[in-house]
Design a protein that fits this description.
The structure is a homodimer.
Chain A (H helix, E strand, L loop, with lengths): L1 E7 L1 H4 L7 H11 L3 E8 L3 H14 L2 E5 L10 H8 L4 E3 L1 H10 L16 E3 L3 E3 L8 E4 L21 H5 L8 E5 L3 H19 L10 E9 L3 H7 L1 H5 L6 E7 L2 E9 L4 H15 L3 E3 L5 H11 L4 E5 L5 H6 L9 E7 L2 H6 L5 H7 L4 H15 L3 E7 L14 E8 L2 E8 L6 H23 L1
Parallel strand pairs in A: 1-2, 1-3, 3-8, 13-14, 13-15
Antiparallel strand pairs in A: 4-5, 6-7, 7-8, 9-11, 9-12, 10-11, 15-16, 16-17
Chain lengths: 447, 447
């Protein structure tokens, strides 16, 4: 089964919003055995939406759209769907009742615009949107004669007559229109759309597990050197197993993928053959975030951690705490932007700050040891650096970051130079990544 | 001028990577007067890339691609470009010298795979990639006879013969191929590509300021109620000014856009007419992040702030510290996951924790006041709640968050219910948003 996603909204094309929906949806679709062929982002523009719908159905079995389902004038997706599928809006009493229930404590959200949300396309199957007012619409099992949309019947010309003159849609092709609000889209996908698709195509062309990805995480080696190191192994891969290199922030994700032709076991055999070659650089044999990995190691080893942050400004703490259950190993952090906090809360000596400065090995060591003592943890990480864009000196240019790891066996510190060309956000992200990578290595070694 | 972006990479279509490049590029293109018509994401697949290149040129003047320029086997963009533009790879001595300079301290990154990076398409103009090895390629002013790519000359069939049988590309249409690594793409866009485009099309069809967006930030009103409130104003807008509603996390961004037909002054006049209607809900009259806005207010009023975080786990601190120069007003944070930290570092009374629990008005007030005293700041914000997915009780379900704001005029606290259906990440994000929104209101009132 092949799907395409069409994301609809001017905000995507002017860069006001990053499309995070598509990646999340792609993962979920892959899990149930549906591959994603293309993602297309278009404006809230009738002709453009009609054209890309037609094009998508010429290539895919399932088309998912997000966005344009709000109650305000700029949202036109529902009307364009009616036109595309030759149907009309009718009142849906279930959606009406649901919206009344949804807004029972918020009377100001129930008004004549909200009332347009319970008008739904007559030929669509409506799936409930438990947490929002926009109904999820499935156009499914529709008869070809229902597809009245033809270029000659519309008042305005569309981009290309020929593109719309053929009907690319035959059952069991289907379209699912989802809201663009990520929270609503995710719940609808998990609770409604994926079960619906799985049920509909069960035993047919849809086989969960058909699409298999296996990822290995590495650090400390350039991508090109890695590729040369494993060249013999890579050249021996069968053509139906795809290898990809994804370098980011000093980490390389090495991914093997198969679309229906290799089993999980077959991929595993290739992974097993690879591991001895890359052992020096290996972080994990799965596609796991560094924060999830370090959280699991800390939990397994029954160790605790605290952080003391200057240049990372809370980002290290926030990253570690994205993990559910982090309170089992994460005790707390002191974000010490101001030197007086470093001194009075973390116990960094005034002399150290005066003599070496805040961005120094001495300070960052005392910060790490200070927070470790303050919070009574096994490990502590401290960061201090110049995140920029201002604050750099010839001696300590923007991008200079000291990181210290205090452990039961003593304290280590390292200086990183992430480069003045990087933006503030990238420098703090690199610092967070390096802080966690080295802790993972410490935890792997300690054990 | 109309542009399209094509993002290339399997990782985008399997959801392993979120495409953040396109939104950033869209903003920059709009700034110089180039509108973005469509974003298309495709696999590292020769036929698919060839097809979407041809389609994009049928609609756009400028096509920008990202991704697929690495030295490893899975990256095929450069080869596909050669095929599309009927050219071949040749060695570029400047790129070669640049890469040697780039890796002079990293000899292990200089190897025979890296050497493939200084092979570039003969007909392309090469712009330097200051921070990476992948050259930026511009296919520009190319002659039509150079475009040897025809469906009959390729060995494999492509999706549709008719789609590729016409050449959609005539000067001054052009293509820019950029690396997918965000850091490299951004520097190349800022330093090379945008100046190149501006110079090339100067005085021609490209007019910076042609595309105008004006955004207003509001909070505390449902989208539908807002739309009814401003209905008269909205209906009086001329057809060439587009209005969009962007609700997210309790904030509504109301955006007016014009593509070459209205001046900045004309938009401003409509904004001026709008403001009296929405005064009660207004946060800002520009598209600014909440953290930038609160930072500016704190700096203007010469006030300082500290934070004490439980459920937000450092995210509030990290959000405030994304702003350059935040050290002028941001003193620090105590992330107090563990109750003993709340007690011993923040000075929350043991009795309070025992009697009311960590997620309570009493605790969060003492946390805010404690960190305000500890860090000697004017304001302090504290959070304590159940971010989930575990830890909820019938009394305090997942999504319950107490927030307190300690100010020179006393302390306020409020309880929020963000809903058990939301994910951990969404609950902490909502809490951070509400914490900052209320501080903005306090700062606006105080003044």
């Amino acid at each position: 089964m092949r799907a395409e996603i069409i994301t609809i909204g001017d905000e995507l094309l002017i860069g006001q919003v990053v499309d995070t929906n598509s990646a999340w949806m792609a993962q979920r679709l892959n899990e149930v055995g549906i591959s994603l062929h293309q993602i297309t982002s278009v404006h809230d523009n009738r002709e453009h939406i009609l054209t890309v719908l037609d094009e998508a159905f010429s290539r895919a079995d399932i088309v998912l759209t997000t966005g344009g389902l709000g109650p305000t004038k700029d949202d036109i997706t529902k009307h364009v769907m009616c036109e595309f599928f030759g149907t009309q809006l009718v009142e849906d009493s279930f959606v009406r009742a649901h919206i009344h229930e949804l807004y029972k404590d918020r009377p100001d959200a129930l008004n004549r615009l909200t009332a347009t949300q319970w008008l739904v396309p007559e030929s669509a199957t409506i799936l409930p949107n438990r947490v929002g007012s926009a109904p999820i619409m499935v156009f499914d099992e529709f008869k070809v004669e229902r597809l009245k949309f033809k270029v000659n019947e519309t008042s305005e010309a569309v981009t290309s007559d020929s593109q719309l003159s053929t009907f690319n849609i035959q059952p069991p092709k289907l379209l699912v229109a989802l809201p663009g609000v990520p929270h609503e889209m995710k719940i609808a996908m998990k609770e409604q759309v994926l079960p619906y698709l799985s049920l509909k195509f069960k035993g047919d062309s849809l086989k969960p597990g058909d699409i298999v990805h296996r990822t290995i995480l590495l650090s400390g080696i350039p991508e090109s050197k890695l590729a040369i190191l494993i060249e013999g192994w890579e050249n021996a891969l069968p053509s139906y197993i795809h290898l990809a290199y994804l370098p980011k922030d000093g980490i390389i994700r090495l991914r093997l993928s198969s679309y229906g032709e290799a089993t999980e076991e077959e991929l595993q055999a290739y992974i097993d053959a690879l591991l001895p070659l890359i052992n020096d650089y290996l972080l994990a044999t799965e596609d796991i975030s560094l924060e999830a990995l370090v959280g699991r190691l800390l939990k397994q080893q029954n160790k605790t951690i605290a952080t003391a942050e200057s240049c990372t400004g809370g980002r290290l703490a926030a990253t570690l705490n994205t993990q559910s259950g982090s309170s089992a190993y994460y005790m707390g952090s002191v974000v010490a932007y101001d030197n007086s906090i470093k001194e009075h809360v973390l116990g960094v000596q005034r002399d150290t700050l005066m003599q070496y400065g805040a961005v120094s090995e001495q300070t960052v060591r005392e910060m790490a040891e200070g927070v470790r003592a303050l919070m009574h943890t096994d490990f502590a990480i401290a960061t201090s650096g110049i995140a920029g864009p201002t604050g750099g000196t010839p001696d300590k240019p923007v991008g200079t970051v000291w990181i210290a790891w205090a452990t039961p066996n003593g304290t280590e510190a390292r200086c990183f130079h992430f480069g003045a060309a990087r933006e503030r956000e990238q420098i703090t992200q690199r610092a967070v990544t390096e802080a966690i990578v080295h802790l993972i290595k410490l935890l792997n070694t300690n054990h």
